[in-house]
Amino acid sequence: MVKGLFMLISEFAQQTGLSTDTVRFYVRKGLLSPETGNKGGYNPYQIFSPALVETARVIKLAQSLGFTLKEIAAFGEEYRAGALTATRGADILRGQLGKLEEKAALLAGMIGYVRAKIAWLEGGGQGAEPTFGVFACGVTAGVVDDAGKVRRA
Amino acid sequence: MVKGLFMLISEFAQQTGLSTDTVRFYVRKGLLSPETGNKGGYNPYQIFSPALVETARVIKLAQSLGFTLKEIAAFGEEYRAGALTATRGADILRGQLGKLEEKAALLAGMIGYVRAKIAWLEGGGQGAEPTFGVFACGVTAGVVDDAGKVRRA
DNA sequence: TATAACCGTGGAGTGTGGTCCATGGTCAAG
DNA sequence: CTTGACCATGGACCACACTCCACGGTTATA
Description:
The structure is a homodimer.
Chain A: H1 9-16, H2 20-28, E1 35-36, E2 46-47, H3 50-64, H4 69-80, H5 86-122, H6 132-135, E3 142-144, E4 150-152
Helix pairs in contact in A: 1-2
Chain B binds a DNA duplex (30 and 30 nucleotides) through helix 2.
């Protein structure tokens, strides 16, 4: 068997690091469209090209960027329809970039909060306990007193 | 009714932007622990303090950062446990800080990748196509500075 | 030709994060 | 004391992204 040129599902799975179940799942969802070979009789075997290995990598990447499988499948459709131009691709990515940046900002706020809290704890609890609101989304500042109640600053 | 001091579930839901169903779900999962008031007979009404509104905000935030409800609940547990001694609390938070910074580094890598890819697409595909690996393959540890860039620790 | 290794199909099950709903108890206004 | 708004419980149901399994057909190897 010539490795890597026209694979059956198990080799494809192994090359992509997916399980055969996941590959079949992706095929059902339209994310991967293998050829149907001449082997297998009533239920012909699926033949995977090296291009599909690349596709699988793109799917994984997109997933790690927070796209759902449904969205990824839609991108694939567009791509095959020839509608996925560079401009369009840049637009899609800009949308996702916005989401990622939003997340990063929130995360930065949370990190600031946790840092402040650590400093506060190590300083023996001097002064007002840091409140999350101070760091995130401009929520009205307040402090939590020893009884766990919020006092307005 | 005095707004915001000791709320029943529907007001709490409204103030947090959650549905009452979701609030009950969170209570079942241990993310929110309201008091049980004296009203309601066999099935006493849950009483929500303003501090829990704050908690709900933290939950939402943590969730948007990709923490699961289980992790968030564990965070809350640790938080309550660590609140006893400052040293212990600081230790716990440092652990959380590590996780957050890891996430931040990952996120920064993705943002860098997406930015580069957009630039590449808009430049008409000149030069080498950006690879995710270039951005994400050194994300072991780092911190995000004010500009959202990753600095190596 | 026997037998193991592989294939596809269909359906059930998992965990996460909810949402909906029927039932029945409780509370407050009129 | 009725009526409507509210409450809690329990269970069904949903989407997502898998994962497992039984069944039966196919292929390659010995």
